Amino acid sequence: MTDQLNAIVNARLQGQNGLYTLKINNGRFSGISAQQESTIATEDELDAGGNLVTPAFVEPHIHLDAAMTAGQPRWNKSGTLFEGIDCWAERKTTLSPDDVIGRATQTLKLFAAHGIQYVRTHVDVTDPHLTALQAMLTVREQTSGFVDLQIVAFPQEGIWSFKNGRELMEEAIRLGAGVVGGIPHFEHTRDYGAESIRWLMELAHKHDLLVDVHCDEIDDPESRFLEILAAEALKLDYGSRVSASHTCAMGSYNDAYCSRLFRLLKKSGLRFLSMPTESLHLQGRFDSYPKRRGITRVPELLDAGLKVAFGQDSIRDPWYPMGNGNMLRTLDVGLHACHMLGMSWIEHSLELITENGAAALDLGEYGIGEGLPARCLVQQGQTPYEVLLGQRPVLASVRDGRVLVRRNASHPETGLML
Ligand code: FE2
């Protein structure tokens, strides 16, 4: 089989019966047609083997600058977000371009092996030298053949609360970060947090940039920066370009407040990003029992018609020592934690790591359809349920008609002596 495909045959598509042929021309899907029966793939065709073919996975929230630094210079003993920030502040002083480029590239290759072709990474810009940011711009260029990388100017230690915070954010944008970040719940005061949101929204709007704010990543029910972010987005008619990441505090808000809040959220059209493995690990740390899950109201947001995607947040860093790049693992944990194992949720669950992430990243062209870039995955399973049950690596990842990843179906039963 050649690397450049003319078609994918024997593909199963979500919500459709039977097998399909996806024709490819010049790196784009040029036609989708039903097959009467299974067919034998030619030299320039990929045989999906009757498995589900989905759009490429989207990782909408990761911190590549900190990836693979768990335990450096020390382990996070308390398991809290705040000790993680302290550990990272120490590690940050030893960053070099090669260090960041090496770890970020290694992580992106791990992601590619799991079918991730779109990534949004936050990069800490509370560093007077912007070492990580400059290194990540190089990574974006060097890896563009296998991943679309969005870079968020992320003020880990605050915009108002860090010396020259505003200037560093503006410089990061000038250098080429395409997304404006924030962390209002970590600013020294509530006023600082509110001011930082108004300021960053104006900055993004002025430069026509996307926004992704770490918002209310805390169990404190009084942390209510989401309403400010949503109100600003509504005022600027900018909601589809703004992501609210985490919003853990929403899991602790009372229902009366949430009822009012949801009215605003629906009007604003904000995107929501939840990182279930990370939040289960970091939140609830100041509770005895019962311990809160610290995860935002995912099914309620979806029921309200809002887009919610899951992300990994960390790969072996000061905040979270685990992570293997497999989005199906994140999805599985998220569905468990959010009481979403009803079959109607499971059937649509892959949207949480595909379409909804694409909406957050504001991707212009995404999905499987005639005329769109031929970027897709061959999963191990015929339905979303089977794919989720197995959580096995993708059989193939295709990007613009080129095969990025190809592996044989694993047969876990083989060799079993029972
Ligand atoms: Fe994060």
Walk me through what this model shows.
This protein has two domains: 7-50 and 368-406, Urease, subunit C, domain 1 (Roll); 57-360, Alpha-Beta Barrel (TIM Barrel). It is an alpha/beta fold and 418 residues long. Helix content is 33%, strand content 19%. The longest helix has 18 residues, at 190-207. The chain has 13 helices and 16 strands. Helix 2 packs across helix 3, helix 5 (190-207) packs parallel to helix 6 (225-236) and helix 6 packs parallel to helix 7 (255-268). The protein has an eight-stranded parallel beta sheet with strand order 6-7-8-9-10-11-12-13. Residues 61, 63, 122, 214, 313 line the site of fe (ii) ion.
Q: How do you describe this structure in short?
A:
The chain has 418 residues and is of the alpha/beta class. The protein has helices spanning 81-92, 97-113, 131-142, 165-175, 190-207, 225-236, 255-268, 276-282, 298-303, 327-337, 343-347, 355-360, 384-390; strands spanning 7-11, 20-25, 28-34, 45-47, 53-55, 57-62, 116-124, 148-154, 179-182, 210-215, 242-246, 271-274, 308-310, 376-378, 396-399, 402-406. Strand 2 (20-25) and strand 3 form a beta hairpin.
